[in-house]
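Supplementary notes for students who missed Thursday's class. We covered one full example, reproduced here. Read the sequence, then the structure, then the short commentary at the end.
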Amino acid sequence: MLIKQLTQRFKQLVLLEKTAEPGEVILKQRRVFTLPGRAGVVFGLMLILLFLTSTNYNLNLGFGMTYLLAGLAVVNTLFTFRNLAYLRLNTGQGEAVFLGEVAEFPIRIQNTQNLARYAIHIGFLQSSAIEQIIDLPPNQIINLKLRTIATQRGYLTCPRIRLQTWFPLGLLRAWSTWLPDAKIIVYPTPEETPPPLPSSNEGQSETSQNSGNEDFSGVRSYQLGDPLKHLSWKHIARVDLDMGGKLVSKQFAGANGGKVILDFAATASLLNLEQRLSRLSAWVLAAERAQMQYGLRLGGLEIEENQGESHRNACLTALALFGLDEQHV
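Structure (token representation):
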């Protein structure tokens, strides 16, 4: 236990990057560390035992076996280090998610050398994170996504990433860490059963604002937050999702021209901050599905009436960042 604590402290003080690194990162010699694994420690003890036994009994064959195995260990050190060194790492922009969903950070790994890389484990440094194992052919690029649960609204920064390998014999462990400068916006979780949208300031009745779910007018690309019952399964059955096809949602009409202002101050005072933001998040999605012109009043921020994906994302982003820097009541 003491050795494990000292090792973790050593990593924090000396080995790991202190700040996020923007752009491309190259795993140069000083970034790749090679240490014996459990099998390597056992192998080293075996070599010592063979050498002592050969010396005590003057066994030439024992000396030969000891030197042969020691030579294999030295060659293995080179191959293990070379399997990880000089990889090029980069990250892309992940898509926004709602609180509690799985956030995906796209990672790009490039092998620029005429050397195949095998059995590279990549994952977040968190102890509970699931690692992915990849092979990299010479002069090839692999794109993958590392996943983690979004546990707090606002900006989710990419956790520290660890790459490690035991190739080829498993005696040594070569590893390196990377803290990319990447983040994903996490929206508040929409309320599951929110009340109807508030009455419009333009005199639109509550009935006319919520009648858009009754008249089918066509289909459109799936948007984050669309309920499962609105998915157009007839169209989805014709799409190959594995080849990059997108989900399709049914589109309803009947509320075109309606306007509504979603005001944080008008939400129920008995709800706490997170519940109020959750309700506003659900109302934004409902107004967008109904094709209404909607605006948002949030403290000192006011977003004018509009609709569309960019407007919806702007409203959800404002809700996600609300109250994180200062206390609001």
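Commentary. The domain at 17-186 is CATH 2.60.40.10 (Immunoglobulin-like). Residues 1 and 89 are 33 Å apart (CA to CA). If anything here is unclear, bring it to office hours.
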